[in-house]
Design brief:
With 365 residues, the protein is α+β, with helices and mostly antiparallel strands. Helices cover 18% and strands 39% of the residues. The protein is elongated and about 80 Å long.
Length: 365
């Protein structure tokens, strides 16, 4: 017999993280399942989408070793709805029982779709770079700033990924791009997929360890309580048009102004009441001598003062106001500097983050 007893709030915390690693693709049954591995007083929960793998662990639990794979949906719902202080998990004679508010038998898949959970090996000798540490908040900034720009279209497949190198992460959906310039220390430029980076949300510790393997990357807490393993695209990275984006990130725009972030967001929020954001969400931006005006045809017009004026000349352009709002809403800075004057794009800068937005249509005189 195998069994262990654990505090309910602890297993709830673990299962709420584990479900984020499950792909839930009915065509691939393993992505709808979870491996429960209890060995030598350590409990490990494993989930996958068949490309990325997530391990959530805790130690110091008394019990007897066992390992099994079950469907995650029903188990997760039961754990999250349990109100007792402790839960017990028992595996005996081929029957898996969960004891909490009551006693529940969880079915173990035994049809032809059953397969052992994939084992991911972390062999240091197979690493192509040394393991290094990075603050978790730097990784999480990718989701804060870059995610809004990742392409959802497969027209250019590489744009559905994040471009990463030693000191920056770049993402783009063709019309918009974001350069997040921080000390990422990714020693080998690569592309990482959205599904992998979404798992960063489950990390609680202040620092993580990162190791590159051939075609893969491992990100884990220093305690090993969270381990993320997934695709790392090195061969084919040249398909990401980084050189083209660099022209926009580094182009000299002599005109600029500083704007209060919350004031700008409030203005756009009101303008968007009169904008059909499912269709053409273009609005006219006019950079005046001391103020910025945004208007939506003849339905809404509003002007706000600059917090600070740099080198400037008057300039008008059309931009997708919903995209602009999403970009700025992802930022935490109190004030942002907007560079303008280029006929193709404007650039928003602050705290090491550059966001480039393409302009639409010529402005009628």
């Amino acid at each position: 017999m195998g069994q262990f007893k654990i505090k309910t709030d602890k297993i709830q915390e673990m299962i709420s993280k584990s479900v984020k690693g499950a792909g839930n693709n009915k065509i691939l049954p393993i992505t709808c399942r979870i491996e429960i591995d209890f060995k030598d007083n350590t409990l490990t929960l494993r989930t996958t989408d068949r490309v990325n793998y997530l391990e959530i662990s805790t130690n110091g639990i008394e019990g007897e070793n066992f390992n099994l794979v079950v469907d995650i949906d029903k188990l997760a719902k039961l754990i999250m709805k349990t109100t007792t202080e402790y839960m017990q998990f028992v595996y005996e004679n081929g029957i898996f029982t969960v004891i909490g508010n009551g006693k529940y038998n969880i079915e173990i898949p035994n049809d032809e779709s059953y397969e052992d959970f994939p084992k991911v090996e972390f062999d240091p000798e197979k690493a192509i770079t040394p393991t290094y540490r990075i603050p978790t908040k730097i990784l999480q900034s990718i989701l804060t700033y870059n995610k809004v720009c990742v392409s959802k279209s497969l027209e250019i497949p590489s744009l559905t990924c994040y471009y990463m190198d030693s000191n920056r992460v770049v993402s783009s959906n063709v019309n918009n791009a974001c350069e997040n310039k921080q000390a990422f220390n990714f020693t080998t430029p690569c592309l990482l997929e959205q599904e992998l980076l979404d798992l960063i949300d489950v990390i609680d510790e202040a620092e993580v360890a990162i190791t590159y393997y051939d075609g893969a990357i491992c990100i884990k807490e220093l305690s090993n309580n969270v381990v993320i393993y997934g695709n790392c695209i090195i061969s084919g990275i040249e398909e990401f048009p980084i050189t083209s984006f660099d022209q926009f990130f580094n182009s000299p725009m002599s005109n600029s102004c500083e704007i209060d972030t919350s004031t700008l967001l409030s203005m756009m929020d009101r303008i968007m009441i009169f904008t059909d954001i499912t269709e053409n969400a273009n609005a006219l931006m006019t950079f005046n001598k001391t103020s910025l005006t945004i208007s939506n045809d003849s339905h809404a017009t509003e002007t706000i003062k600059y917090a600070d004026v740099g080198e400037h000349s008057e300039f008008s352009c059309k931009i997708n106001i919903k995209f602009l709002y999403d970009h700025i809403n992802a930022r935490y800075e109190d004030k942002l500097r907007i560079y303008y004057g280029d006929d193709t794009a404007i650039r928003i800068e602050g705290a090491g983050i550059k966001q480039v937005m393409c302009l639409f249509n010529e402005v009628e005189e």
